[in-house]
């Protein structure tokens, strides 16, 4: 981030002051105090309140994927509210989280009315993910394991929205023919366990197993859900670290936040890095409260391999770009990622781990053509 953007947001100066703590493991406990939690929690809540104002203003135009992110946020807010309620010093924060969740609930309810008109079939197929109680948050935490990173990842993000959707519909049991959840075809088994995926292919493989877990699918392939979740998140961590190395050059931010959203919900606390929180907070548009294309002057590197890999992946109904540059999908992933930070903050001190280039991750792609390093 640039100095200019730091100056524009006095609140973030504090984060920067805290950042050097990340260099020493012993400092993990230094922020494990009420004051630090309250400060960071307040910053995150301010961002989420602004984003909710955006949701409210554009409600009729927000697509389903946008609503899903805010649905996950509501659950995260309730979780934080509950945990903080028992600490007298954090009660104001608890009330604030609860107030925001109370504001979100009727908005989300109303949004379904709009989706019924704008995209009825997609809504029917994915309505379970909008239902209260669908999103379940972790109660225990783990770390990604770098030895699970693919040695030879695919050079192209092979994500196909239609294929991925059809497998999710089978899983949810919302198709025209199937009515039982936990459905799985041979095609979907192959697609969702295929090794070597990158980008959105990877994050949708993870989403598939996360939803399987939330739906309570435990038989057959799903008895190995945790194994696949661990493999996918290890690779998503690798991608996020490389995204950080190229300073989150547009348009990787969308996928970067999606990875934090999904793997955080998957219980991988090492995605909750202070410098990543700082980056995301910095991408919010102060006027609209949304997340979207960067303001003019921000770095856009079309020649970057990461750009070529991912620029054209977000397509069709999943993405909704407003004329002012706000993005429905990007705002949704941002709020669910930030909500994850808040939920984690309520349960643990933030992790401040930084990259350790001296530790070569065994599957690291540093020699591969899609290397993100400049
Ligand atoms: C990481 O994964 C490897 C390979 O599956 C395994 O041998 C190792 O024990 C794991 N490490 C941790 C800390 O879980
Ligand atoms: C399900 O039925 C609807 C309405 O009859 C139809 O438009 C849609 O294409 C069908 N979907 C699938 C996956 O067959």
Summarize, please.
This protein is mostly helical and 374 residues long.
Mind explaining what this structure looks like?
The protein is globular. Helices cover 55% and strands 0% of the residues. The protein has helices at residues 3-8, 10-18, 34-58, 64-85, 91-118, 120-126, 161-172, 186-193, 199-214, 225-245, 252-265, 274-283, 305-310, 328-347. The chain has a domain at 22-149 and 241-347. The longest helix has 28 residues, at 91-118. One 2-acetamido-2-deoxy-beta-D-glucopyranose binds at residues 121, 175-176.
Keywords:
14 helices; 374 residues; disordered N terminus; mainly alpha; DUF4735; binds 2-acetamido-2-deoxy-beta-D-glucopyranose; signal; disordered C terminus
Strand content: under 5%
Helix count, DSSP H or I runs of 4 or more residues? 14
Unique bound compounds? 2-acetamido-2-deoxy-beta-D-glucopyranose
Helix content: 40-55%
Write the layout of secondary structure elements.
Elements: H1 3-8, H2 10-18, H3 34-58, H4 64-85, H5 91-118, H6 120-126, H7 161-172, H8 186-193, H9 199-214, H10 225-245, H11 252-265, H12 274-283, H13 305-310, H14 328-347
The structure holds 2-acetamido-2-deoxy-beta-D-glucopyranose (2 copies).
One 2-acetamido-2-deoxy-beta-D-glucopyranose binds next to loops.
